[in-house]
């Protein structure tokens, strides 16, 4: 296994991790932004007002994007396992 192969595997794993985590990050970012605007407009500074909607949106995002996330991860692992003989030999 060459250093180039290791770097390619690491880069692929990092790209996959970012791609799988992106829907959750985007959902949290948009929800946090909307709640912050609402809190600034109404001058309500309750911490649970920010936390509970984010938790609900993250759960809904996981329900919607979860199958896609699992498919991406299993496809990557399947490709990785099938390429092991080529990497070793």
Automatic annotation (TrEMBL):
Keyword hit for Transmembrane: yes
Mark the transmembrane ranges.
56-77
State its location(s). Answer: Cell membrane; Bacterial flagellum basal body
Reading the lineage from the top rank, the first entry is Bacteria
The way it spans or sits in the membrane comes to: Multi-pass membrane protein
Kindly name one Pfam family recorded for this protein.
Bac_export_3
- For the keyword Acyltransferase, the answer is no
Listed InterPro entries: Bac_export_3, FliQ
Q: Which UniProt keywords apply?
A: Bacterial flagellum, Cell membrane, Cell projection, Cilium, Flagellum, Membrane, Transmembrane, Transmembrane helix
The primary site where this protein sits is: membrane
Family assignment from sequence similarity? Belongs to the FliQ/MopD/SpaQ family.
Task: Summarize the protein's role.
Answer: Role in flagellar biosynthesis.
- Name used for this protein in its record: Flagellar biosynthetic protein FliQ
